[in-house]
Write a structure and sequence with these properties.
- It is a single chain.
- This protein has helices at 22-25, 112-122, 137-141, 150-189, 211-214, 252-255, 272-275, 301-307, 311-320, 332-336, 345-383, and strands at 18-21, 26-30, 51-53, 56-58, 68-70, 74-78, 87-90, 94-97, 100-105, 144-147, 207-210, 215-218, 230-233, 237-240, 259-261, 266-268, 278-279, 284-286, 291-295, 339-342.
- The protein is built from 11 helices and 20 strands.
- The chain has a 4-stranded antiparallel β-sheet. The chain has a 4-stranded mixed β-sheet with strand order 4-3-8-5, with no helix packed on it. A 4-stranded antiparallel β-sheet has the order 12-19-16-17.
- It has 3 domains: 16-147, Adenine-n6-DNA-methyltransferase TaqI, Chain A, domain 2 (Alpha-Beta Complex), CATH 3.90.220.20; 149-205 and 343-385, Helix Hairpins, CATH 1.10.287.1120; 207-342, Alpha-Beta Complex (Adenine-n6-DNA-methyltransferase TaqI, Chain A, domain 2), CATH 3.90.220.
- The protein is α+β, with helices and mostly antiparallel strands.
- Strand 13 and strand 14 (237-240) form a beta hairpin.
Length: 385
């Protein structure tokens, strides 16, 4: 029997790993389906236990039919739909709906947290049939598990839990920092919070200018198709397609009609009215379907990059674009109708530098989260057979 590469020192001399079927070590129940015609209004506050469907706890607002309640430590495995095969440790009582597989140990045969980690790492489950992805109980019971002793399982589980706690702490820190930035931005762009110049003096009053006073529409197609093709995304802004999972192919002929995007340009996309106008940190080319904006006067691009993503600006877009839906482009005329704030360049720069510093802190936390996740994945590869 193979043993893991990485083990705690007190277990290194033992070779007591055993291969078992899930059915040999676990009792499995299945959460009931919702039956729409038989709903009875239910609020979770009136129930003894939290109610789980797939990965999350569900709060009120709909009823259930004949849901099942479970007590004792167990884990649930998603048996249908999104997240198929994902496992979640459950401590204490809960109610299960939505075809969850509820897994209980037979005679302390496994540590719940250990098996949860094992399933999520080892059992990569693919749906090979059409329709809604399914994981029947009988199929899950037939999977093999390679187990160490219960004491070693618990040691591994406790260690991995400390890593998960670190990831959760960092995720919470990122969430709070993001919320702080959003609150600060609201105060900055509503001018409740103002910056002072380098001499401690107040900056002058902000002006307001129509979009076409500050930005011009650009359609430069003078290129040799040797620039990277940019994908226009709400998550990353304008970014080379080869840096993300973007699989749309284009012909050499169509690329000839693409527009040149310079660093600092803004792009109006099909979904700008939903998520704001996108910014480009890259020089490249993009589809002629997009509208490219470039500053007509000396501006701080990062100031407007932040402003174009505020809920206030997106609301203004929606107000000016009544009736616009997916598939329709925001026009330059419509963009121009909206008044934009215009502080002096020095205050724009102060604001941009402040918000950029917050972005860098958020990015640093994001990198810590990803590094910790990768560290955990590396451990899992060495700790599980």
């Amino acid at each position: 029997m193979n043993v893991p590469q990485l083990r705690f020192k007190e277990f290194k001399d033992s070779n007591n790993y055993k291969t078992k079927l899930v059915a040999d070590i676990a009792k499995i129940a299945v959460g009931r389906d919702l039956i729409e015609d038989s709903f009875s209004p239910v609020e979770t506050e009136t129930h003894k236990y939290p109610i789980y469907s797939n990965t999350v706890e569900n709060y009120g607002l709909y009823g259930f039919y004949d849901f099942q309640e479970f007590e004792g430590n167990s884990l649930t495995v998603v048996g249908r739909g999104a997240g198929l095969g994902m496992a979640f440790a459950r401590k204490g009582g809960f109610a299960a709906i939505g075809r969850l597989l509820v897994v209980f140990p037979k005679q302390e045969s496994f540590d719940v947290q250990w098996l949860t980690e094992y399933i999520n790492f080892k059992m990569i489950i693919h749906n090979e049939s059409g329709g809604i992805p399914q994981l029947p109980r009988s199929t899950f019971e037939g999977y093999s598990v390679v187990l160490p002793t219960l004491s070693e399982q618990t040691k591994i589980a406790n260690f991995l839990t400390t890593i998960d706690e670190r990831i959760n702490q960092l995720s919470r820190k990122k969430e709070l920092m993001t919320q702080y930035k959003q609150g600060v931005m609201q105060h900055i762009f509503s001018q409740q919070l103002r910056f002072k110049d380098d001499n401690g003096e107040d900056f002058g009053a902000w002006e307001e200018k129509n979009g076409n006073f500050l930005f011009a529409a650009i359609s430069n197609k003078d290129h040799n198709s040797d620039l990277p093709i940019l994908a226009i995304t709400q998550e990353h802004g304008a970014i080379p397609r080869d840096l993300i999972d973007y699989r749309v192919s284009v012909s050499d002929k169509s690329v000839e009609t693409y527009k040149v995007v310079e660093v600092g340009d803004f792009i109006i996309s099909l979904r700008s009215f939903q998520g704001g106008i996108e910014y480009s940190n890259y020089k490249g080319i993009c589809s002629p379907a997009y509208l490219i904006l470039r500053s007509k006067t000396q501006l701080n691009s990062y100031f407007y990059k932040s402003y174009f993503k505020t809920p206030e600006y997106i609301t203004k877009l929606n107000q000016h674009l009544e009736g616009i839906r997916d598939g329709k482009m925001v026009s330059y005329k419509q963009f121009s109708e909206i008044l934009l704030p215009l502080p002096c360049l020095a205050e724009q720069t102060k604001i941009a530098n402040f918000l950029t510093a917050l972005d860098e802190k958020i990015q640093h936390i994001t990198q810590q989260i990803e590094a910790t996740k990768q560290y955990k994945q590396g451990l899992l590869q060495q700790m599980f057979v």
